[in-house]
Amino acid sequence: MAHQGREGGLDAPTRHPLKQNEPEFWDEHALNQELERVFDICHGCRRCVNLCNAFPTLFDLVDESDTMEVDGVAVADYTKVVDQCYLCDLCYLTKCPYIPPHEWNVDFPHLMLRAKAVKFKKGDTKFRDRLITSTDLVGKVASKPLLNSLVNGANKNRSARVLLDSVLGIHQLANLPEYTDKPWRRENAALVIDPSSTASAARPQTGGENSESVTLFTTCYCNYNEPSIADSLVKILHHNNIPVNLAVREHCCGMPKLELGDFDAVTHLMQKNIPVLYERVQQGNVIIAAVPSCVLMFKQELPLMFPDDEQVKAVARAFYDPFEYLHKLHKAGKFNTQFKNPLGNVSYHVACHQRVQNIGPKTKQILELIPDTSVQTIERCSGHDGTYGVKQETLEFANKIVKPIVAKIKQQEPDHYGSDCPIAGKHIEHNLDTGQPATHPLDLLCQAYGI
Q1: Which of 244, 240, 193 is nearest to 215 (CA)?
Q2: In the chain, what is the straight-line distance between the N-terminal and C-terminal CA atoms, in Å?
Q3: pLDDT exceeding 90 applies to what percent of the chain?
Q4: What is the pTM of this model?
Q5: How many other C-beta atoms can be found within 10 angstroms of the C-beta atom of residue 100?
Q6: Which are the contacts of 315, defined by CB distance < 8 A and separation ≥ 6?
Q7: Which domains does the chain have, with CATH numbers?
Q8: How many other CB atoms are there within 10 angstroms of residue 402's CB atom?
Q9: How far apart are CA 346 and CA 376, in angstroms?
Q10: What's the rounded Cα separation, in Å, for the pair 259 and 149?
Q11: What is the pLDDT of residues 274-313, one digit of tens each?
Q12: Cis link prior to 101 (omega < 30° from 0)?
């Protein structure tokens, strides 16, 4: 129970449902009142000033106003703060002493999410942002055999990038991901379990001694950009005698559209993904995805949007981060610890959306089972977010936010470095001038196994 006027406490943080179906959620006057209330609390605290650019933007608006208080900030300028929030959730997780169950009930990320949703509903969203958050669509187009080389070539061509900058507002210096012409799900179609197929139904559904199977949620990024990460995860699971399958269909988890405030798209994607994943859960499978944001979407955000949906809740309970699952195997005495190669000194960036899952440092704990391997963690946001780090108006801030991570890696002089978030890893690599590439922790584990 929260006490009057108390900061922090020992109570576990509480996340309330979004309540996006209630009229007040969409009431702009009520939203602005809540923004003013929370901004005033943040102004009086300022503990989150070093996390991202949302808080410096807010505090500059306050300090430059006539009153030097939130009441001196024009309501029209609230959106400047909202636009700088990319929902990393670190303020809620690591800094704010006023989160629920505190009586002040501050959930800054979800308030920003509400503001983004109202903004989107008003039509105040750029075409660029609608496009780059359509990761399934972009991936399908960019992976087409003839278009693939054109897209990848254009992303590396200076003239094409200048044009992309001027027309769409995608910064010409942003590091854009390459697209494969061999999407992972297409190349691994034999793993698909189709409940309506006789052949699929005849296939073993569960593992041997470990007594369960894993359904891999591939993710847009692993499917279209870095299939090698999905390859590594499957190799590791097979090396630990865990069978892997794929659901009959897969669509974007919805996180990019959630961050845009496009709740209709999120609902549509949920309605496509959840039934097929629920069918796998009903068959006794757990679900794993190699991108923390996708795991968080199914574990936290969808249950908070659809708190009464039993299928959503069942899928959330069955969803695992890869290293969370491997640690579960380890605790049960079923994790293969026969490693062939040490990794030496590893600088490990902890992804924001993995930290928010509150699963503990499972990646570090697993990697440190490898002999002659030490893991030094870096718990700072990389500032990329997937879209924030490519946009014309925010790349400068994304590169500024990642600087402490880059400095730490240079100081540590590691044999390897990387992040559970592959996009964060690439963003760090792009800002690191040593030429040393980032290596995903799953790839590191494969290296240690010698597979």
Answers
A1: 244
A2: 51
A3: 90
A4: 0.93
A5: 17
A6: 274, 277, 278, 281, 287, 298, 302
A7: 23-121 (no CATH), 127-168 (no CATH), 184-320 (3.40.50), 337-449 (3.40.50)
A8: 23
A9: 6
A10: 29
A11: 999 999 999 999 999 999 999 999 999 999 999 999 999 9
A12: yes
Backbone conformation region of residue 330, classed left if phi is above 0, alpha if psi is from -120 to 50, else beta:
alpha
Residue 70 near residue 62 (C-beta atoms within 8 A): yes
Classify 175 in phi/psi space as left (phi over 0), alpha (psi -120 to 50) or beta. beta
Calpha distance 68→45 (Å, rounded): 14
Only one residue has tokens 């959503």, namely 312
> Which residues, 6+ apart, have CB-to-CB distance to 388 below 8 Å?
86, 394, 397, 398
The C-alpha angle 36, 41, 45, rounded to 5 degrees, equals: 140
Burial class (CB in 10 A: 0-12, 13-18, 19+), 225: buried
Cα separation of 354 and 302, whole Å? Answer: 16
Per DSSP, what are the bridge partners of residue 288?
216, 320
Q: 286: which strand partners? A: 214
Separation CA 287–CA 278 (nearest Å): 10
- Which of 91, 14, 446 lies closest to 236 in space, CA to CA? 446
The mean predicted confidence, pLDDT, of the chain is: 94
Rg, C-alpha atoms of the chain: 22
| CB-based contacts of 199, cutoff 8 Å, min separation 6 | none
pLDDT at 199 over 60: no
pLDDT at residue 198, as a whole number: 56
**Alpha carbons 150 and 76: distance in angstroms, whole number:** 41
